[in-house]
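ok so for the tutorial part 2 we go from a plain amino acid sequence to predicted C-alpha cells. step 1 is just haveing the sequence, like this:
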Amino acid sequence: MEFLPTAFDQEALDYRPPGRQSAPVVVASPHSGSVYPARFLAQTAVPLAALRRAEDAFVDELFAAAPNLGIPFLAARFPRSFVDANREPYELDPGMFEGPLPRPLNHRTTRVAAGLGMIPRVAASGEAIYRGRVPSEEIEQRLETCWRPYHTALTTLVEQTHRQFATALLIDAHSMPSSASGVGPRERDRIDIVLGDNHGESCAPDLVDAAERWFAGHGLRVQRNQPYAGGFTTQRYGRPGLNRHALQIEINRSLYMDENRHQKLASAVAVERIMAGFLEDVASQALNVLLPRPLAAE
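step 2 — the prediction. this is what the C-alpha cells look like for a chain of 298 residues:
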C-alpha cells in the first residue's frame, strides 16, 4: 500500500491501514467522528447531547476488525454536525451564511431543504444548530480542513485498491436511529440492516445479494434502499461499469447502544463479531465475483 499524502492529518482523519492489503475492499465511516472544535461549540444554540445524536456513534468500533483482515479503514474524526462528508461540497443553504459566498451553492436539494447540507443547519432533533448566521468564509475553511482531506484520502484508497486488484468495493458504514428503522410499533416490524446501492446503480447485484444473505443468516432483518438508498459517497464512488463498487450499510443503533445515554451495550460485542464475519465474507465474495477472469484456452 502506498503512503497517503501528508494532507491527511490526524486531526481530521482516523486512518487504520492493514499490514498488507489482501482484499479489494475499503471500509469508510464518514459520520462516527466525535471531536467537536471549541469554536464550533461556541456558535451553537443546542447542547452537545443534541449534536451527538447525529453521530453514527461507535460505527468505527463495530468495523475495527477491518485492518486485521487486510482491509484499510478510514473514518472522519470531525462530527457530522460540523461537516457532513456524505454531501456534495457546496450542497448548502445560502441563508445560513453571513458575507459573500465563495461560489453559487447547490441549495435546491431535498437534503438542504431539510437543513441537512454539507454544513447542517439543524440538529437531529430538528432544532437550529447556530445562534446566528455562520461567517461565509467558514465554508472554504471547513472544506479545506475536513471535507477535502476525507475525500482525498478515500479516493486514494479506492484508486490504490483498484490498481492492485483491478477492482474495488467500498463499504460505506453508517448507523440509523431505531426510530427510523421500523415500519410499526411491534418488534417483528423492526429493520436491523439497510443495504443501500442507489437502487442498483452503485454495486454489483451479486455482492448486494451476498451481503443480504450474510446478515439474514445471522438473524438480522434486512431491507434494501428504504429508507436509505445511499448518499454522495455511493454516488461518487460506485461505478460498477468501471469495476468500482460502493455499498452503504445502515445498522440499527438499538442493536448495540443505548441511544438516550449514548453508551455501548454489552450486545455490541456480538455486533462487532457479525461485522467482522461480514467483512471476511464480502472480501471473499469480492475476490470471486469482481475480479476479472482469465480467458479460457482455446
